[in-house]
């Protein structure tokens, strides 16, 4: 009844099924690894955001590379804003995906070191993209600023090209080493995304907290691939049995003479 399984068509179908099963299992394992990675990153972010604020110089210093565990930690600093050396970061979007600038202002500490502060987003609605935009001034004098610590931006990590020949006081990336050379100052590694004090008139627009990566989606994909892998042999059996039934039904029925025993 099942001799048809040796036909060319069914041999190919069986080989394809045998290849699909381990492939789907491996895809499920890969999705599970992605789930674990995303879950771990979400936990790191949650732990960092939930940690008690500390003085910025406890976590970073000139030349320091901000680590994954230090990223998003809430830090405080006491000093004054240096708007004379303020720059804007091009091609940044707000929560509504509108293109504008991030405002990057040096914050001078009591010992002369400089902390880079991303004060938030402003629209690029000036007369041209080359003119330096009008930026609301930050509080003057000696103040305390709070923000989330971030690592230096690089082309490799962000995918943003560090273009040269930009208009005056405009940059593509927030990078403490580049700013140290421009300012000729001791600049703390990384930068902070300002959370307080809140700007008057809500401009610059403060940057919101990082969103969670959708780790459960990868978990669901892993289960989906494993269900597919389990369904392949089940589907093969169902197709084979259906083929056997169809072939049996197509067989010609014996005539009465053929059905009668000999000698009757």
β content, as a range?
15-25%
Helix content: 25-40%
Total of DSSP H or I helical runs spanning 4+ residues: 5
Mean pLDDT: 90
Measured on Cα atoms, how large is the radius of gyration?
32 Å
Note the run of SSEs as H and E.
HEEEEEEHEHEHH
Weakly predicted, low-confidence segments = none
The shape, in one word, is: elongated
Distance between the termini: 30 Å
Sequence of strands across the biggest β-sheet: 2-4-5-8-6
Number of β-strand runs: 8
Query: What class do helices, strands and sheet pairing give?
Result: alpha/beta
Largest sheet: 5 strands, mixed, barrel
Write the layout of secondary structure elements.
Elements (H helix, E strand, L loop, with lengths): L7 H43 L3 E2 L18 E8 L5 E7 L5 E11 L4 E10 L19 E8 L4 H4 L11 E2 L4 H8 L7 E6 L18 H36 L5 H4 L5
Parallel strand pairs: 1-2, 3-7, 5-8
Antiparallel strand pairs: 2-4, 2-6, 3-4, 4-5, 6-8
Give structural notes:
The chain is α/β, with parallel strands linked by helices and 264 residues long. The protein contains five helices and eight strands. The protein has helices at residues 8-50, 155-158, 176-183, 215-250, 256-259, and strands at residues 54-55, 74-81, 87-93, 99-109, 114-123, 143-150, 170-171, 191-196. It has a five-stranded mixed barrel. A hairpin with a 5-residue loop joins β3 (87-93) and β4 (99-109). The radius of gyration is 32 Å and the shape is elongated. The model has no long low-confidence stretch (mean pLDDT 90).
Give structural attributes:
about 260 residues, alpha/beta, about 35% helix
